């Protein structure tokens, strides 16, 4: 399998190359040159199989040429056989006649990002050992990426991870899940700014090619293809459990950087019968606005009850636009130049129509998010986290056919956002036993100004 950049000016790479590179050298994102296609018979054969076995079938074509089947199998068994605390790994829960939740929070840091980052840590280990290289991981997090990435990389021999988070803008549980990891190869940095500032710092470091090569910089944000790839799997396992390929299934995805829902779009492209893909956003609704008006325009960031979705622009949207534009990299370069210069662009009519053909979108503000949490708890006793509640609100608005199962992705455990959950439902969700003492553990972090020079100096100091 070969990968190409959405901006068309970086070299083609194999899976090992894109995993170690992250952002393409032309500023674009890597996508598979061609998608593997699964027949109905192949999808049917996933029925009743353990998660790790389906993961092998789905992922194998994407890593062909870079990983042996035996190595891949061992990594998948270690990840999904052991690191997750539920035998189904990604269990479905029924909430209504044809409404389902896909619980993606049974991994070590209680959010869906563990699905990809537990695996990515193993890929890094494998490829760096093979090459005899060291890696510097640099990431920005609005909360959940950071802890999941740190958990995936802690203690690994050839990897140092620097994780930026917006100072005072992540929940206490989120912060402590990062800052209480005390291994020497983990550096937590609180940036005086918001999440987009953090993301801009990361991008600036990656675009400084000389710096990037000197420190061996690699990304763990969802611009890294391996993350999207790992998330394709649970669309297959859940759809098959609900009757696919002999029945269509719809999905609603609480969305920030567009990585998780893009994985659903890829699953559909591989042959999974997905009817609707609903983008659920909070107040930071650039995607919902773009779908409605065709104008993709940054509009500041507002803090909400669902902080992992508090983003200004969605980096993975570029991957989708590449498809909408018929894989014409020149179109993407033009759009992205306009985005940089004017903080937005207008989608061409044909591209907007293609977007609307594949996606629906809706927005939920904090009041609605809290109401959904309260109503669900009253109706069924189920306690959902605020990100999941944003999803449920959008699913209710956008669902066009109640005869098709609607699966809302439950992206975080309610205890990660305990204050918001308690406020809405009166219930104080307990942390799982392995984290019960989190609030009393020692923390380690440094604070930096929103300044790329200071960040680069800190990273060089650690070489
Ligand atoms: C990261 C995250 C999201 C958004 O996912 P994207 O792939 O960035 O769209 C939603 N919910 C939670 C809990 C998250 O951690």
Strand-helix topology:
Layout (H helix, E strand, L loop, with lengths): L2 E3 L9 H7 L8 E3 L7 H5 L6 H13 L5 H14 L9 E3 L4 E5 L10 H18 L3 E6 L3 H10 L5 E8 L5 H8 L6 E6 L3 H13 L1 H7 L1 E3 L5 H17 L7 E6 L4 H11 L4 E8 L4 H8 L1 E3 L19 H8 L4 H14 L1 E3 L2 H10 L1 E4 L2 H15 L5 H13 L7 E5 L7 H8 L20 E3 L3 H10 L2
Parallel strand pairs: 4-14, 5-6, 5-8, 6-7, 7-15, 9-10, 9-14, 10-13
Antiparallel strand pairs: 1-2, 3-4, 11-12
The chain binds pyridoxal-5'-phosphate (PLP).
The site of pyridoxal-5'-phosphate has 16 residues, from helix 11.
Q: Could you name the ranges where pLDDT drops below 50 across 5 or more consecutive residues?
A: none
- By CATH, the topology of the domain at 92-106 and 228-425 is Rossmann fold
What is the count of helical runs?
Answer: 19
CATH 2nd-level architecture of the domain at 92-106 and 228-425: 3-Layer(aba) Sandwich
Q: State the end-to-end CA separation.
A: 33 Å
The main pleated sheet reads as: 6 strands, mixed
Report the C-alpha radius of gyration, rounded. 20 Å
β-sheet strand percentage: 5-15%
Counted beta strands: 15
Q: Would you state the CATH class of the domain at 92-106 and 228-425? A: Alpha Beta
Output the strand order for the largest sheet: 3-4-14-9-10-13
Can you give the helix content as a percent range? 40-55%
List all distinct small molecules, including ions and cofactors, that are bound in this structure: pyridoxal-5'-phosphate
Structural class, from helix and strand content? alpha/beta
Q: What would you call the shape?
A: globular
The averaged pLDDT comes out at 95
InterPro entries: Ser/Thr_deHydtase_PyrdxlP-BS, Thr_synth_N, Thr_synth_N_sf, Thr_synthase-like, Threonine_Synthase, TrpB-like_PALP_sf
Protein name: Threonine synthase
Catalytic activity: O-phospho-L-homoserine + H2O = L-threonine + phosphate
Enzyme class: lyase
């Amino acid at each position: 399998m070969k990968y190409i950049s959405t901006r068309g000016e970086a070299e083609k790479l194999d899976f090992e190359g894109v995993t170690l590179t992250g952002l393409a050298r032309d500023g674009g994102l890597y996508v598979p040159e061609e998608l593997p296609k699964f027949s109905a018979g192949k999808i049917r054969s996933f029925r009743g199989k353990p998660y790790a076995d389906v993961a092998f079938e789905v992922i194998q074509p994407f890593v062909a040429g870079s990983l042996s089947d035996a190595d891949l199998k061992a990594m998948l068994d270690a990840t999904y056989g052991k690191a997750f605390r539920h035998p189904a790994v990604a269990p479905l829960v029924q909430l209504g006649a044809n409404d389902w939740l896909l619980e993606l929070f049974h991994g070590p840091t209680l959010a869906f990002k563990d699905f990809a980052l537990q695996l990515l840590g193993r890929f890094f280990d494998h490829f760096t050992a093979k090459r005899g290289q060291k890696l510097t991981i640099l990431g920005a997090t609005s909360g959940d990426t950071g802890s999941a990435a740190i958990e995936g990389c802690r203690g690994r021999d050839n990897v140092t991870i620097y994780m930026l988070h917006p100072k005072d803008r992540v929940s206490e549980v989120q912060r402590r899940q990062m800052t209480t990891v005390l291994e020497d190869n983990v550096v937590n940095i609180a940036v005086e700014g918001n999440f987009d500032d953090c993301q801009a710092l990361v991008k600036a470091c990656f675009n400084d090619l000389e710096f990037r090569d000197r420190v061996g910089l690699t990304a763990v944000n969802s611009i890294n293809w391996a993350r999207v790839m790992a998330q394709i799997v649970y669309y297959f396992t859940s759809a098959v459990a609900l009757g696919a390929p002999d029945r269509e299934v719809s999905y609603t995805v609480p969305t920030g950087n567009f990585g998780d829902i893009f994985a659903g779009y890829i699953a559909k492209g591989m042959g999974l019968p997905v009817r609707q893909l609903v983008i659920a956003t909070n107040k930071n609704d650039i995607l919902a606005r773009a779908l409605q008006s065709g104008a993709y325009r940054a509009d500041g960031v507002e803090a909400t009850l669902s902080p992992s979705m508090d983003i200004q622009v969605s980096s993975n949207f570029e991957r989708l636009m590449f498809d909408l534009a018929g894989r014409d990299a020149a179109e993407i370069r033009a759009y992205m130049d306009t985005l940089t210069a004017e903080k937005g662009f207008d989608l061409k009519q044909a591209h907007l129509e293609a977007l609307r053909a594949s996606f629906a979108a809706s927005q939920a503000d904090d009041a609605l998010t809290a109401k959904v949490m309260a109503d669900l708890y009253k109706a069924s006793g189920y306690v959902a986290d605020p990100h999941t509640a944003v999803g449920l609100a959008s699913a209710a608005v956008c669902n066009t056919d109640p005869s098709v199962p609607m699966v809302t992705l439950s992206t975080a455990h309610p205890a990660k956002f305990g204050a918001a959950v308690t406020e809405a439902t009166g219930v104080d969700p307990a942390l799982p036993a392995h984290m019960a003492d989190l609030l009393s553990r020692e923390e380690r972090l440094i604070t930096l100004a929103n300044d790329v020079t200071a960040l680069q100096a800190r990273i060089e100091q650690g070489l």
